Amino acid sequence: MTELPEFAPQSAESLPIWLVRPGDDGPALPAEAGEMAKIWAKAQGFSGRAGQLCLLPTPDGKIAGAVYGIGSAERAFRDRYVLAKAAEALPAGDWHIAQMPEDMDGETAALGWLLAQYRFARYKKAEPPAARLVCPQGVDGDRVIALAAGEYLARDLINTPASDMGPDELERAACELAERHGASVSITKGEALLAQDFPMIHAVGRAAAQEPRLIDLVFPGSGPQLTLVGKGVCFDTGGLDIKPPSSMAIMKKDMGGAANVLGLAETLARLGLTRNMRLRVLIPAVENAISANAFRPGDILTSRKGLTVEVNNTDAEGRLVLADALALADEERPELLISMATLTGAARVALGPDLPPFFCDDDVIAAAIQNSGRDCADPVWRMPFWEPYESMIEPAIADLDNAPGGGFAGAITAALFLRRFTDKARHYVHFDIYGWQPTAAPGRPKGGAGQGMRAILNALPEILS
C-alpha cells in the first residue's frame, strides 16, 4: 500500500497560510497578515479566486507565509478539495492554516491536502509534494488519516494492473486488511464454489488462469449487522461477447467495487467503529476471460438463491457474481446490506464519471446518504428501483435476464436484477460507481478513485441507530 501521509507536528516554525475568499472590494485579507502583505498581494493580482496562491515575502526575501484563494462560498461544492491545489503548489516546509472561513469544513480541507499527497509509484518513481500541513484546530487528525487510508487503499488496488491484481492478489490484499484489524477470513475457490452453492461466481470465472473465489471477511464486534458486497472482476474482457479494445483499456478497474468496500472497511476499522457493529465484507473475485470452457450467450445459470438466469450478454457478468454473494449475505438478514460495483455504462451516460448513482427503497436512508455525501465532498445521487421495469429483466425461458435488450434504463434494470437476491435484509442499498478519475483534479489524480465511501461512513450513525 502507498505510504500514508502524516500531518506536520505543531511547531512555531511552521508558516502561516491564510485562506481567502474574493469580495466586492477585493479579497478579504486578514489584518494579521500585515499591511505589506495586502500591498504585495494586490501587486501580484491576487483576487481570492479558487486555487490562486500568493507567497508573501519577508523584508530580507524569505517566505513569510502565503495567502490562498478558495473562491466564493457559492461555488464551494464545485471546488471539492480546494486546499489540495495549495498542497501541490506550496514550497517545501511545514504550513499551518492561520485563517479559515467559518463556513469551510476543516476536515474536508485537511483531507484534500492529504489526498493531494497520493502518488502511485509502484512502477515509476513519483515524489509527493513536499509541503506538510499542521492539522487544523478543531479537526481530528487521526480521523482524517483514517479517511485517507481508505481512499489510498482503494486507489492502489484499482491502479494496479491485472497482471499484479488478479483474484490471487485481491485475496491477498483482503487477507492483509483482515490481519491488520483482527478479522477472520474464509475463502471458497475453484470447484468448491459449486460444492458450496455459488454456481454463478464459478461460471463467470472458470475460464480464467486464476481460480474464481468468494472472499469472506468478518470483523469482531457486536451490534447491528452491516454487510458490504463488492464486485471483484479483476479484469473484464467481456467474455465471449468480447469488448472492443477501446472499452477494454481500463478494465483493470472492474474490481473497483471490491476496492471501495475494502477501503471503507479499512476506515471503519481504523476509527474503531467495527467494535459497535457486526461488519462482514464479501467479494466475489474473478476474471472474465475467454477459453474453451467460458460461459456462453444463451446459457441458463441457476443461482445460489435458486433463481434461473438467462445469459444474454457475457459482458454483463458483474451482476451474476454479485447475485450469488448477495444471496449469501441476505441469508443472515443484516440490518444494512450494501453492494458496490463498477456495473453499468448507462450510469456513466446518465450522471458522468464523477457522480455515482445509488439505489435505495427507504427515503430516510437515501436522504441520509445523499446529504452525507454532499456535506463531506463525496457526492452521490439517488436513482429509483423503478418497479414498472421489472418486466424488462424477465425473459421467456428463465426467471431473470442478465442483459435485457433495447438499451433503455440499463442502470435501473441492473439494480432491479440485484435486488431480486436481497429480500431478507432489512435495508438494501446498491452503488453503481465508476471507480476512476478520467482527468486529474485537485486531490484526485487520474486513475483509481474512491466513491461513496465517506457518504456511507457519515450516514451510518443515522442508519444503524
Short précis:
This protein has 465 residues and is an alpha/beta fold. The protein has 14 helices and 19 strands.
Main attributes of the structure:
2 domains, nine-stranded mixed beta sheet, elongated, five-stranded mixed beta sheet, 465 residues, Aminopeptidase, alpha/beta, Leucine Aminopeptidase, subunit E, domain 1
What count of structural domains?
Answer: 2
Helical/strand content category: alpha/beta
The CATH topology of the largest domain corresponds to Aminopeptidase
Strand content: 15-25%
Gross CATH architecture of the largest domain: 3-Layer(aba) Sandwich
Task: Provide a descriptive summary of the structure in words.
Belongs to the peptidase M17 family. This is Leucyl aminopeptidase family protein. It comes from Paracoccus aurantius. The structure is a single chain. With about 475 residues, this protein is of the alpha/beta class. The chain folds into two domains: about 15-115, 3-Layer(aba) Sandwich (Leucine Aminopeptidase, subunit E, domain 1); about 150-465, Aminopeptidase, CATH 3.40.630.10. The chain is about 30% helix and about 20% strand. It contains 14 helices and 19 strands. The chain has helices at about 35-45, 85-90, 105-115, 140-160, 165-180, 190-195, 200-205, 245-250, 255-270, 320-330, 345-350, 365-375, 410-420, 455-465, and strands at about 15-20, 55, 65-70, 95-100, 130-135, 185-190, 215-220, 225-230, 230-235, 280-290, 300, 310, 335-340, 355-360, 380-385, 400, 425-430, 435, 445-450. The strands form four sheets. Strands 6, 7, 8, 9, 10, 13, 14, 15 and 17 form a nine-stranded mixed sheet that branches. A five-stranded mixed sheet has the order 2-3-1-4-5, sandwiched between helices. The model has no long low-confidence stretch (mean pLDDT about 95).
